[in-house]
Amino acid sequence: AQSVTQLDSQVPVFEEAPVELRCNYSSSVSVYLFWYVQYPNQGLQLLLKYLSGSTLVKGINGFEAEFNKSQTSFHLRKPSVHISDTAEYFCAVSDGGSQGNLIFGKGTKLSVKP
Amino acid sequence: ETGVTQSPTHLIKTRGQQVTLRCSSQSGHNTVSWYQQALGQGPQFIFQYYREEENGRGNFPPRFSGLQFPNYSSELNVNALELDDSALYLCASSKTGTGHTIYFGEGSWLTVV
C-alpha cells in the first residue's frame, strides 16, 4: 500500500528566507507525485506535479520540487518566501491507476513571519 | 477559481441523521472524486465516479454513497451520521487524458452534533 509522510507538521520561517518542506513516500510501483496548497477556509490548489521526465519540477508561485527515486522523496522548495505563502501544504501520491485517487500526507503548516 | 462548486458550504446535522452534499464539476470533466478532511489531517479518498459508475473506493463504510449524473455533477450521501463524520468534504474533478490534473472545490463543512 502507498503512504506519504510529511516529516514536519509546522515550519516557521522569516520572510525572504528559503524554505524546504519534506515529503517521503512508500510505494512498490511507479508513482505520480503532487504538492497542493490549502489557504485557510479554502479547497486545495495544485502547486506542481511529477508524472515522468525531468526530476526537477517547477510549479506556480515560485515553488519547485525534486523527485528522488532512490530516497523516495519529493521535497518542496522555495528560495525566498513571502507572507502570502503562509498556508498548509500537502504532498500526495498516486499510482496512476485511477486518476483522482490520491493518498495525502498529513500536511505541513508553513508560517511566514515578517 | 477551479470551476468546481460545492454546496452547501456549511451545515450542522444531528447524530443519526442523513446528509447530501452536492458538487458541480468543471465542464467536460468526466471523473469526480470525494475526499474527507478531518481537522488537522490530510484529505482521505472516499470514492470516485467515472461516467456515472463507482470506479474506486477508499476505506469508508457503505453508509457513504454517491451518485454522478449525466451532466457530471455529483452527490455524496452519508447515512446514520456519527460524530466522527464531522469534517470538510472535498469534491475533485478531472478529465481523462489531462495528465492527472485534478481540480478541487472549496468544500462543504459538516458538523455533526
Characterization of this structure:
The complex is a heterodimer of chains A (114) and B (113). Chain A is built from no helices and twelve strands. Chain A is an all-beta fold. Chain B contains no helices and eleven strands. In chain B, strands 2, 4, 5, 6, 9, 10 and 11 form a seven-stranded mixed sheet that branches. In chain B, strands 1-3-8-7 form a four-stranded antiparallel sheet, with no helix packed on it. Chains A and B meet through β5, β6, β10 and β11 of A and β4, β5, β9 and β10 of B.
How would you summarize what this structure contains?
Chain A has 114 residues and is mainly β. Chain A has no helices and 12 strands. In chain A, the strands form 3 sheets. In chain A, strands 2, 5, 6, 10, 11 and 12 form a 6-stranded mixed β-sheet that branches. A 4-stranded antiparallel β-sheet of chain A has the order 3-9-8-7, with no helix packed on it. Chain A has a two-stranded antiparallel ribbon with strand order 1-4.
Largest interface: A-B, 26 and 30 residues
* Unreliable parts of chain B: none
Radius of gyration of chain A: 13 Å
The ordered H/E elements of chain A are EEEEEEEEEEEE
Helix content of chain B: under 10%
DSSP E strands of chain A, number: 12
The overall pLDDT of chain A, averaged over residues, is: 91
What is the distance, rounded to the nearest whole angstrom, between the alpha carbons of the first and last residues of chain A? 41 Å
| Number of helical segments with 4 or more residues of chain B | 0
Average pLDDT of chain B, rounded to a whole number, is: 92
- Helix and strand pattern of chain B: EEEEEEEEEEE
Report the β-strand fraction of chain A as a percent range: over 45%
Number of strands of chain B: 11
Give Rg of chain B in angstroms. Answer: 13 Å
User: Ends of chain B: how far apart?
Assistant: 32 Å
How do the helices and strands line up, and which of them pair or pack?
The complex is a heterodimer of chains A (114) and B (113).
Chain A: E1 3-6, E2 10-14, E3 19-21, E4 23-26, E5 32-38, E6 44-50, E7 56-58, E8 64-68, E9 73-78, E10 87-94, E11 103-104, E12 108-113
Chain B: E1 5-7, E2 10-13, E3 19-24, E4 31-37, E5 44-50, E6 53-57, E7 64-68, E8 74-78, E9 87-94, E10 103-104, E11 108-112
Parallel strand pairs in B: 2-11
Antiparallel strand pairs in B: 1-3, 3-8, 4-5, 4-9, 5-6, 7-8, 9-10, 9-11
